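Quick one, T. Sequence first:
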Amino acid sequence: MADEDPDFTVPVGLFQDVEDLKAQLASLTAQVKRVIDTAETDEGEDPDDAGEDTGDEDEWNYPPFILLLESPQYDDELRALIEWVEGVLVPGYLAEPSAAAHWCHLWVEHTVAVARLHALWLAWQELTDPATCGYTGPSLWHRDHLDPCLRELRASSGPFAGCTKGEHAISHRLPGTVPSAWTQGET
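Structure tokens:
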């Protein structure tokens, strides 16, 4: 009996957990490399330039949340988002709208949709980049970002709930705006 192999049972989710950890490790490794490269670049700078402001080029290290942008940055980011939604998301992932799965062809007029789709697009950019995502990045994007986003957008209570095939309705939006840091400067 000592010659028999032991019976090991591996939980089904263990393999996916290992792949998630591999993707996180690859992402962290890429981030560390960028930090080291940046530090080495900074060390090689001319000492006479050390105190000078290099401008706004480093203002955002990561893409900002679209609803916090003002023109012209908002317009540029929205244009790029529209290209991605209309060129990748709609043809690749959205079936014909139905009563159970709404979609509005004028989605850019729904602020909630713009915010959610922008977040989805940012995740897509990161998780489809082989330098940061490893092999499981696209799978993680589908599971953790695409599916929940589409469920929320296309739900019967989502931002497109009042829109039907060929018809656009914005009357289902909440009236007015909530005072916040976004509108503090506006009076």
